[in-house]
Amino acid sequence: MKIVVLVKHVPDAASDRSFADDLTSDRAAVDGRLSELDEYAVEQALQTVEKAGEGEITYLTMGPASAAEALRKALSMGGDAGVHVVDDALHGSDALATSLVLAEALKKLEWDVVICGMASTDGTMSVVPAMISERLGVPGLTLASSLIIEGSTVTIRRDGDDASTTITGSLPALVSVTDQTGEARYPSFKGIMAAKKKPVTTWTLGDLGLEPAAVGLSAAWSAVASVTKRPPRVAGVIVADEGDGGVKLADFLASGKFI
Amino acid sequence: MAEILVLVDHVDGVVRKTTTELLTIARRLGEPSAVYFGTGVEGATETLGRFGAVKVYVVDDSDINGHLVTPKSEALVAIAEKVAPGAILVTSSSEGKEIAARAAVRLGSGLITDAVDVDADGVATQSVFAASYVVTAKVTHGTPIFTVKPNAATPEPAEVTPSVERVTVSYSAAATATTITDVSPRAKSGRPELTEAAIVVSGGRGVGGAEGFGVIEALADSLGAAVGASRAATDAGWYPHAFQVGQTGKTVSPTLYLASGISGAIQHRAGMQTSKTIVAVNKDAEAPIFELSDFGVVGDLFAVVPQLTDEVLKRKH
Ligand SMILES: Cc1cc2nc3c(=O)[nH]c(=O)nc-3n(C[C@H](O)[C@H](O)[C@H](O)COP(=O)(O)OP(=O)(O)OC[C@H]3O[C@@H](n4cnc5c(N)ncnc54)[C@H](O)[C@@H]3O)c2cc1C
Ligand SMILES: Nc1ncnc2c1ncn2[C@@H]1O[C@H](COP(=O)(O)O)[C@@H](O)[C@H]1O
Questions:
Q1: Are residues B34 and B48 in contact, defined by beta-carbon separation less than 8 angstroms?
Q2: CB B56 within 8 A of CB B41
Q3: What's phi and psi for A34, nearest 5 deg?
Q4: Cβ neighbour number for residue A198 with a 10 Å cutoff
Q5: B227 at interface of A, judged by CB pairs closer than 8 A
Q6: Touching check for B299 and chain A: CB below 8 Å?
Q7: What is the pLDDT averaged over residues A18-42?
Q8: Ligand 2 contact, A128 CB (< 6 A)
Q9: Radius of gyration, CA atoms only, chain A
Q10: Nearest-CA distance from B210 to chain A in Å?
Q11: Where are the alpha helices (DSSP H) in A53-202?
C-alpha cells in the first residue's frame, strides 16, 4: 500500500504569532514546527503500514525552504521519503491555490490513500483536504476520529455534534484525521539518525506544470483588508477563597446582571 | 437585488438559530434564498420566511444524507449555477466548512471561513491566531462564499411568505462513493447548544473525574448555561468530546464564560478568548487563565463552585 501524508510547517502556536507588512502570516518572526495536528496523520499512516505489514509512506509539503524541517521531523517518526514543493511564487497562496499545487503534486505521485491533518494550526481553515479531494475527484473521508484501512476498504468514525457516524469507502481515497485518533509517537534517536538519509525531492512550480501567476498572494481569491491586534484582555479582580469565594463570585455575577 | 443563498442548518426541520443569523446577514447583501437539504421542509418554511427567506430551494433525495458531505456541496453548486447568487452563506461547522470548500473549487470562487461578521459591502471580520488578531477580508473572485460562526448577528425578523422550489441534482461518482453504515445519535442533554449559549460553564483537569462534572453541571443548570470542557477532561473520558472548547473543539463566544479547574492553555484560549466576560476558579494563583479573567477566585473548585450554585439558586427566588 502506498500512502502520501500531507504535512505542513507552521509557526509555533506557543510563540507570539504576527503578520508581515504584506499582511501574510509572518513566518520569519517565530519558530516553525511540523503542525501538531499533522503528527496525528503521520501516526495513522505509520500504524496502517505496521498493521498491513507492508507499505510505503511519502510525506508531501508545500512551503518555503524551512518547511523541509517538517519533512525531516515526520521522517524521523518513520516512513520512507519526502517531497517538498518550494517556489518563491508560492508566497501568500490561499487555500485554493495551496490545494491546487498539492493536487498537482499528488498527480505525479503514486498512492492508494492520502492522509491529511484536520486543520493547520496557523490557518485553521480545515478546508485544504476537501478541496484536494474535489480537485482529484477521489472520495474524501474527512475528520476521522478513528481510521481503519484494510485491503482496499477504508472505514472511519466521525464524531459529529448530533451523532457519531461510521463511513466506508474504497481506495483510492483521501482521509483527514483529528486529534482523537490517538497520540503521535516521539521520534527515537535511531529514527532521527535514519531520517537524515531518507530521500527528499524538491519540486518547483515548473515541475508541476503550473504558472506562477496561478498561485501566490496576487492570485488569491480573497484579500485581507486590515489586521488589528486585539487589545489584550486585562486581568480583573482576583480574590483568594476564604470560605466565601462562591458568594463573592455570585456578587460579581449579580453586578454584571447575570443573576 | 442579488439573490443570496443561505444553507439551512436544521435537525429534522427544526431550524438552528445560526441559520436565522445567516438570513439576517444575507439581507444586508441582497435578497435571501434558503437552501434546504433533506426531509422536513414543511416544518421549516415558516421560520425561514419569518427571517426573510423569499425562496426556499429543497433537495430531498436518498443521496443527500446517505453519503458524507460531498452530495450536499454538489447540490449547493447546482443551485448556485442556476441562480447566479450574489453570495453564499454557510454555517461555520465542520460540515459547513467542507461544503463551502468544495463549492469554492467547483464554482471558482473565493472563500472566507469562520467569519464573525459580514457587512453590506461583503467585508468579513475574522478572529485569528487564537483570537489575538482581528482581520477584515473580502472575496475578490467569483461568487463570495462565507462560512459564518454562531452569534455573528442578532436574528431580526422580516416576515415574508417564501415560495418553495424542489430541485433535482445529479451527483458525481466520487460524491456517492462513500457510504454511511452506522449512525449513533448523541444523547441530548437538554441544555442550550454549546456554541449558541449565552453562558458557558466549563470544567478541566481540576474537576478530577467524570463524577466531578456533577458540580459543573449543577452550576450550569442553575444559570441555564451550556457545559464545556477542556481537552484534558475530554481526553480523559470525563466528558464527551463534543463539548470540548478550544482549537480542536468548539469556539464559543458567550456573554459569560466560567472556567473551573482549567489552566488556560493557548489551545483552550483559542476557543473562548472572545467571550464577553470571563470568570475563573483555580487553586493555582499563577494559572494563566487569571490573566484573561474579569473576576477570579483562587481556591478549590469543590468548595467555591457548589457555594456559587447555592447563591445563584437563592438569589433567583
Ligand atoms: C494540537 C493541540 C490541540 C489542542 N486543542 C485543545 C482544545 O481544543 N481545547 C483544550 O482545552 N485544550 C487543547 N489542547 C490541550 C492544551 O494544550 C492543554 O493541555 C489543555 O487545555 C489543558 O487542560 P486543563 O486546563 O483542563 O488542564 P491543566 O493544564 O492540567 O490544568 C488544570 C488546572 O486545574 C487546576 N486545579 C486542579 N485541581 C483543582 C481544584 N480542586 N480546584 C481548582 N482548581 C484546580 C490546576 O491548578 C490547573 O491550573 C490542545 C493541544 C494541542 C497540542
Ligand atoms: N502547505 C501545505 N503543505 C502540505 N499539507 C498542507 C498544507 N496546507 C494544508 N495541508 C494539509 O491540509 C490539512 C488542513 O489544512 P488547512 O485546510 O490549511 O487547515 C493540514 O493538516 C495538512 O495535512
A1: yes
A2: yes
A3: -65, 125
A4: 17
A5: no
A6: yes
A7: 86
A8: yes
A9: 22
A10: 18
A11: 68-77, 95-108, 128-136, 189-195
Q: Average of pLDDT values for A147-168?
A: 94
CA of B287 to the centre of ligand 1 (A): 10
For residues B58 and A235, give the distance between their C-alpha atoms in angstroms, rounded to a whole number: 49
A224: which chain B residues are within 8 Å (Cβ-Cβ)?
135-137
Q: pTM for the complete prediction?
A: 0.94
pLDDT tens digits, B184-197: 998 888 999 999 99
Strand partners, B250: B245
Stretches in chain B below the pLDDT threshold 50: none
Name the β-bridge partners of A174: A114, A140
What is the spatial distance between Cα A216 and Cα A44, in angstroms, rounded to a whole number?
31
The CA angle A185-A188-A190, to the nearest 5 degrees, is 145
A174-207: per-residue pLDDT in tens? 999 999 999 999 999 999 999 999 999 999 999 9
Helix (H, G, I), strand (E, B) or coil at B42: helix
CA B202 to CA B279: how far, in whole Å?
A: 10
Cell of residue B192, nine digits = 442550550
Decide if B292 and A138 are in contact by the 8 Å CB cutoff: no
Spell out where chain B has E strands: 3-7, 10-11, 14-15, 31-37, 55-59, 87-91, 111-118, 124-128, 133-139, 145-148, 163-166, 179-185, 199-203, 226-229, 256-260, 277-282, 295-298
Phi first, then psi, for residue A121 (nearest 5°) are: -75, -10
Single-letter code of the amino acid located at B26: A
Q: Is A170 in contact with B181 (Cβ distance < 8 A)?
A: no
B13, B41 Cβ separation under 8 angstroms: yes
Q: Which of B10, B26, B35, B8 is nearest to B158 (CA)?
A: B26
Q: Which residues 233-292 of chain B have a CB within 8 Å of chain A?
A: 241-242, 247-248, 255-256, 266-267, 273, 277-279, 281, 285, 290-292
- Which cell is A75 given? 521522517
Residue B173 contacts residue A257 (beta carbons within 8 Å)? no
Burial of A228 from C-beta contacts in 10 A (0-12 / 13-18 / 19+)? exposed
Alpha carbon distance B112, B126 (integer Å)? 9
**Mutation pick for ligand 1 pocket among B231, B243, B290 (CB with most ligand atoms within 8 Å):** B231
Helical segments of B152-226, H only? 213-223
Q: How far apart are CA A54 and CA A40, in angstroms?
A: 20
Residue B237 vs residues A38, A54, B9, B268: alpha-carbon distances, Å:
23, 33, 29, 17
Concatenated DSSP letters for B244-293?
Answer: BBSTTSB----SEEEEES----HHHHTTTTT-SEEEEEES-TT-GGGGG-
CA distances from A202 to A72, A76, A87, B123, B174 (A): 13, 18, 10, 38, 31
ipTM: 0.94
Instruction: For residue A4, give the nearest of A101, A80, A85 by alpha carbon.
Output: A80
Give the span between the Cα atoms of A196 and B214, in whole angstroms.
Answer: 51
Query: Closest partner residue to A165 among B183, B277, B304, by Cβ?
Result: B183
DSSP B47-59: HHHHTT-SEEEEE
- CA distances from residue B184 to A79, A159, A181 in whole angstroms, order as listed: 35, 9, 18
